Amino acid sequence: MGDTSDEEKALGKVKVIADQLGLSLDEIKEKKYSKKTLKRMLKNKVYNETKIEKRKIQKQKRKAKRKELKETLGINLSEKKPRLTMSESPNKVNIAIDLSFNSMMNEKELRKLMKQIQRCYSLNRRSDAPCQLYLTSLKDEIAKGLMSKQPGFDYWDIHRKEEHFLDAFKDFKEKGTLIFLSSDSPNLLPDVAEIQKRGGDYAYIIGGLVDHNVHKGLTLGLAQKSGIQTARLPIDQCMELCVSKVLAVNHVFEIMLNATNGIAWSQSFMNVIPARKVKQSDALKSIRQPKKEHKENSENVVQKDQVENQSSASSGSESSTT
Ligand SMILES: C[S@@+](CC[C@H](N)C(=O)[O-])C[C@H]1O[C@@H](n2cnc3c(N)ncnc32)[C@H](O)[C@@H]1O
């Protein structure tokens, strides 16, 4: 007796859902829809029916909020922030990606490098103060690849040089202000205030290479042979990594771009270096949770910057700053 009434109840529920879905009980039996499937179908139906209406309401709310802000505070949120081109930017620091390593990469690695270059370009384009971004040795496969595979490459606001960076930045080499960035360098980059102070008098070169560090020490050796200075990012001074300190081209560029905009090394490392590479000490874990503990975190960053400044000042015994 009890069983029959339970079955009836269940059937009643299915009937209600079937009606809402516009299905007959025969159709449900034939297609062998389970109760769970029917519930999911109903949920999707309700979602789809209300989606457009909900979006309309949200749009109206946003519009009203923008209007209110404009009327009460004179803030116009609909106005797009103007983007500065490199020539308009007050940031004159030169950062070049050296593309002279084509022959050392297979097709997959070349494609990866192109993606990394695209990322560097878009980071610079969206920056409040873009730096002077160069591509040197821009010829052969990489040039052809960028032109054919990157939509709009011809219109990119980027300095293009076919020459090798040693020719493109000859004056800088003579003045001793040409620095090749290499994780293998015995020298550290100075603090960001110094990078900003030097401005356009200096040029920093990033090796355009995707090699999973198979060619360890390659760019350091080449730079030393050419008689130019080298420097590494002060990662050890700010955090412990569980893997090698060799970063991808786009990560090095992002950190350098941030530095030219006055963002402290430690803050950049925390935001840019992939979390999987970072040894998750408790301190770093708390810094990597931005929302709730924001105030606490910014204090941590300040404290870390003080440590960073002290350590880079005191690291002179181990490595000089370049
Ligand atoms: C994927 S790495 C290539 C590593 C390569 N074996 C070499 O000899 O440079 C790409 C480039 O990013 C820059 N780079 C990577 N990690 C760096 C670090 N920790 N400090 C400074 N530059 C770094 C270097 O310019 C490097 O050539």
UniProtKB/TrEMBL annotation:
Enzyme class: transferase
Region (Disordered): 283-322
Low complexity: compositionally biased ranges: 311-322
GO biological-process terms attached to the record: tRNA N1-guanine methylation
Enzyme nomenclature, EC number: 2.1.1.221
Record keyword S-adenosyl-L-methionine present: yes
Assigned keywords, A-Z: Methyltransferase, S-adenosyl-L-methionine, Transferase
Gene Ontology cellular-component terms listed: nucleoplasm
UniProt entry tagged with the keyword Transferase: yes
Residue span, SAM-dependent MTase TRM10-type domain: 80-280
Coiled coil, from the record: none
GO MF term (any one): tRNA binding
Catalytic activity of the protein: guanosine(9) in tRNA + S-adenosyl-L-methionine = N(1)-methylguanosine(9) in tRNA + S-adenosyl-L-homocysteine + H(+)
InterPro entries: MT_TRM10-typ, MT_TRM10-typ_sf, tRNA_m1G_MeTrfase_euk
Name of the featured protein: tRNA (guanine(9)-N(1))-methyltransferase
Protein species of origin: Tetranychus urticae
